[in-house]
Amino acid sequence: MFLALRDLRVGRGRFVLVGIVIGLVGLLTTLLSGLATGLVDDGISGLRGLPLTHLAFQPGAESSFSRSTLRPDDLEPWSTADGVEAAPLGVSFFNAKTEGGETLDLAVFGTPPDSFLAPNAEARAALAGRPGIVLSQEFRKEGVRVGDELTIVGPDQTLPVLGFTYTGSYGHVDIAFTSLEVWQQLVYGDNADGRFSAVAIRGGDAATYAAADRAAGTETETKEHAFAGSPGYAAETATMTLIRGFLLVISALIVGAFFTVWTIQRTRQIGLLKALGASNAYVLRDALGQLAVILVAATAAGALVAVGLGQLVGDEVPFSLQAGPVLTSAAVLVVLGLAGSLVAIRKVTSVDPIIALGAEP
Q1: CB 23 within 8 A of CB 298
Q2: Which letter does DSSP use for residue 343 in this model?
Q3: Which of 1, 146, 337, 353 is deepest in the core (most CB within 10 A)?
Q4: Among 123-132, 202-211, 244-253, 257-266, the least confident range
Q5: Does 357 score more than 70 pLDDT?
Q6: How many CA atoms lie within 13 A of 134 on its CB side?
Q7: Is 5 a residue whose pLDDT tops 70?
Q8: Beta bridge partners of residue 219, listed in sequence order
Q9: 120: which residues sit within 8 A by CB, 6+ positions away?
Q10: Which helix (H) or strand (E) element contains residue 220?
Q11: DSSP per residue over 242-287, as a string?
């Protein structure tokens, strides 16, 4: 590493240029990580925040609330299962008009007042009181206040705003909570027949779930697996993963090309080292060590710049930087960069010491 570090200092102009390119790739990778995480949060944060571990759907619903319709008879086996807390849950999308005529998009979650999904007394009181709706904190930015009347488009039912709860969304639409009875009235009118979308579950084990599924004729999914039922979730996740994958592959090719050029430029130096008795392993450690220093430094710099830029992103763009995904992206970039350099390893190890005596390589 002594010669590699010395070479970095002597040829810093050349290595800075290469570092800038790698840093830009690190910047883009980190920004894409933030966008991917932000899209996920914007699509499922409302569902993720609910205090449940599993959801039971109608068979074939593929974790989609809109494809699942259950009735009280389907809930009974879950309500009587040992060690299980179960509650009916209705989920639908609506548009609402404010008193000022503005349109709001709502992902309405309906649940009974005594449900474990309403963990505090204030939430239970809001759901058990007069028919109304509890909105995500995001709606405060739209100028909505407690006591405002919202007209739900479609059923044309007017509901007062009873309060606000945590920020969350589902299918990129901010959530709103109401009682299951009100939700059924909005969705089915007078023909509700006790219908709801899914059974929210907490507690129990795999054997209990299997037995309840057989009795109720339902299909149980973990909450995390149910994220895939959020509109657009699967397509967005696959798209962002594909883009990040292409970027990482391209970065590996770029680093491999740079490393090949460096090796050619250092051919006489490598030949001299071998003529002085350096082994292939020593020469290889020297070359890869030099590359690793540049990769780590440039990737870290690019990631830090991306984190700084991320603080400037407004609420209009779903962007969220978390330490885990950022560090993972940076580590993968470094590993793939080193992997890309493998194409030049044979060139490093095959240099003939006679080159140091002035012979052409």
Answers
A1: yes
A2: G
A3: 337
A4: 257-266
A5: no
A6: 24
A7: no
A8: 57
A9: none
A10: strand 219-222
A11: HHHHHHHHHHHHHHHHHHHHHHHHTHHHHHHHHHTT--HHHHHHHH
Grouping H, G, I as helix, E, B as strand and the rest as coil, residue 22 is: helix
Specify the residue for token string 């405060």. Answer: 140
Mean pLDDT of 152-159: 92
Helices (H), the chain: 2-10, 12-48, 72-79, 121-128, 180-188, 206-216, 223-226, 233-265, 267-275, 280-310, 323-340, 345-349
Name beta bridge partners: 70: 196
CA 298 from chain centre, in angstroms, equals: 25
- Which residue matches tokens 């945590």? 166
DSSP 223: H
- Is residue 108 within 8 A of residue 186, CB to CB? The reply is yes
Whole-angstrom distance, CA of residue 354 vs CA of residue 351: 9
Sign of CA dihedral 204, 209, 215, 221: positive
140 within 8 A of 94, measured Cβ to Cβ: no
Where residue 361 falls among pLDDT bands split at 50, 70, 90? very low
Q: What is the pTM of this model?
A: 0.77
Residue 95 above 90 pLDDT?
Answer: yes
What the block records as the tokens of 269 is 């130096």
| The pair of three-digit structure tokens given for residue 213, joined into one six-digit string | 């599924």
- Residues sharing a CB contact under 8 Å with residue 142, sequence separation 6 or more, in sequence order: 98, 102, 104
pLDDT at 39: 81
Distance between CA atoms of residues 280 and 123, nearest Å: 70
User: Distance between CA 262 and CA 3 in Å, rounded?
Assistant: 14
